Amino acid sequence: MNDILKNKIRIKVAGPAQKIIIQLPEGAANGFPENCEFRNSGGRIMMNGMYFRSIVNIPCEFSVVRGLIVGESFHWEHREDHAFRGSLEIVSTPAGLIAINELPFEYYIASVVGSEMKSECPEEFLMTQAIVARSAAYSMSKKLHAGELFDLCSDDHCQDYRGVLRETNRILDAVNRTSGEFLYYGDDIADCRFSKICGGRTSKFSDAWKEESPHPYMPEKWDCLIGGPDISSLADYVGSDFPHALCSPSETIHKGFRYASRYFRWEMPIPKDFVSGNLASFGFKIGDVLSAQPLEITSSFRIVKMKFVGKKGECILSGELNLRKVMSLSTLPSSSFVLDDKKIEWICRGAGWGHGVGMCQIGALNLAVAGYSHEFILDHYFPGCRIGKAYEYQDLEEKIWQEKRPCYERANCYEIHRCKHGKTGDGPQNCKGDPSVFEKEF
Length: 442
Prior knowledge:
Layout: E1 9-17, E2 19-23, E3 35-41, E4 44-47, E5 50-52, E6 55-58, E7 62-70, E8 78-85, E9 87-93, E10 96-103, H1 105-116, H2 123-141, E11 152-153, H3 169-177, E12 181-185, E13 188-189, E14 194-195, H4 234-239, H5 261-264, E15 265-271, H6 272-281, E16 289-297, E17 303-310, E18 313-318, H7 320-326, E19 337-341, E20 345-351, E21 359-360, H8 361-369, H9 374-381, E22 386-389, H10 407-410, H11 435-441
Parallel strand pairs: 1-11, 14-21
Antiparallel strand pairs: 1-10, 2-3, 2-7, 3-4, 4-5, 6-9, 7-8, 9-10, 12-13, 12-22, 15-20, 16-17, 17-18, 19-20
Helix pairs in contact: 1-2, 1-3, 2-3, 2-8, 2-9
């Protein structure tokens, strides 16, 4: 039986790195000082001048890991200090040190819900996100990091997990009310996925990843409660406002998610010389890029194959995430885009944020705001699935961690790179995570 169904999970929260800094509550771990600096030393681990073999176990109930990268390769990439429940393990690998956090699975789910969205969301949404995150974690743990010393990683490659500071009593209550509940398709736990903003149309699993088995419960469809628009081209889709889409700015935007309207339809300049460098990092040294042409566009209006022509040759790049990485200074919001050639750069116009497979988080949030139940929301995004309980109820205790939370933690901020408080985290208590609103309100 998977350890997750025994209420235990191991998450890689740091590394690979040459140095990992950890702070422990006084007396929390026998034999370890309050401040620990671990360094990679030729296959061994050095801590505060002492040498250890390749694995160091730190038995503790709480710890803080300093300077962790959040949102790696995305536009909001930054560093945060994260406090974690459970024990830590420092492991030396050929690439450097990694830190693994082992904790009860249900507490992990509580943190994921608070890391992915905000605790002020309606209760029905929080319950929806808990069930989807629980199902996703179980399914992904069996394949994304198979054969490694941990089940999942803490960033967007798996699910966003930022530790105990993302727990609130509202989230813990939602996790308690759905404890042990998964989405099932037939007799198996469904391999659920989700993204922030689908842009109005969800994608098939095979549009984003290699599909080893069918995922009929995550169909490509218009994400609305009435009929979809009469659109047949990528340009028309990107150019449409599609007011009936559940993630459209025309729908009610819950407080704290004003930024979502900027990602339903977006526009940004893409320097061609930067794309040339990105292609070289993928092994395609074709010189200065002259043109880019989509070769394959899915029926959900996402580009999955593109041809690039340069002064020294040409190449073809496949994969929606690869294209998003190449066509951006960080990572493009989605692969649903069109290009307007301006000689030294393209003006890139696009739709949505993320791969678009499964649940649209902003769409699901707007359904909850409109009064729909978590059962309805789950049926809308995962048709043919049912809710089932895999283990007995496990009551989570109320939040006890009282360390001051930075403003970007409280606001679940994806605009940290644009805000003057992004480095210090000392913004107003009632900031909604949107610098453009901040300037008007504060």
